[in-house]
């Protein structure tokens, strides 16, 4: 799938934990996330997520229901919040070779490497709330 350029070149790949921070008060928001989201909602930037992002967010919410942090009634609405955002969901299938290489080189999970591969593919800046990934993002050239 080709991403058409917008009227300017600002592109960001958003990781599941960063998106969930917008809905759940379970930690600090990643630096610049609110500003990036505001520009994206105004159509002034492209906000990208890999398809696995939705499953990762669902997994977190499922664990929170199991741990009695959230009720089964609260979780669907929390999942619907990011679905209303102007996020472009990209297929991860085309990224597999790069993901494999990045996961080995950076010693990160395949899932984390998927976000970095997407950022590299589209010349985007990677935003996340995971403490281990900023170093890998910087080393691959897609850190903000």
Q: Which features characterize this protein?
A:
144 residues, alpha/beta, Rossmann fold, 4-stranded parallel beta sheet, 7 helices
Structural class, by secondary structure, is: alpha/beta
**What percent of residues adopt helix (DSSP H or I)?**
40-55%
CATH level-3 fold name: Rossmann fold
Instruction: Specify the CATH architecture.
Output: 3-Layer(aba) Sandwich
Number of self-contained structural domains? 1
Strand order of the largest sheet: 3-2-1-4
Count of strand segments? 4
SSE series: EHHEHHEHHEH
Q: Total number of helical segments?
A: 7
CATH superfamily: 5'-nuclease
Q: In percent, how much strand structure appears in the residues?
A: 5-15%
Mean pLDDT: 86
CATH class: Alpha Beta
Molecular shape: globular
Distance between the termini: 24 Å
Radius of gyration, taken over Cα atoms and rounded to an integer in Å:
15 Å
Question: Strand count, sense and closure of the main sheet?
Answer: 4 strands, parallel
Low-pLDDT stretches are none
């Amino acid at each position: 799938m080709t991403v058409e350029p917008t009227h300017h070149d600002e592109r960001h790949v958003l990781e599941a934990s960063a998106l969930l921070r917008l809905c759940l008060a379970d930690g600090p928001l990643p630096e610049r996330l609110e500003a990036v989201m505001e520009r994206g909602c105004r159509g002034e930037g492209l906000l990208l997520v890999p398809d696995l992002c939705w499953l990762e967010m669902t997994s977190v919410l499922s664990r929170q229901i199991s741990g009695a942090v959230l009720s089964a009634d609260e979780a669907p609405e929390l999942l619907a919040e990011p679905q209303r955002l102007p996020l472009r969901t990209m297929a991860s299938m085309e990224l597999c070779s790069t993901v494999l290489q990045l996961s080995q080189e950076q010693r990160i999970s395949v899932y984390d490497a998927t976000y970095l591969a997407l950022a590299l593919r589209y010349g985007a800046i990677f935003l996340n709330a995971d403490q281990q990934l900023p170093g890998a993002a910087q080393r691959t050239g897609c850190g903000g």
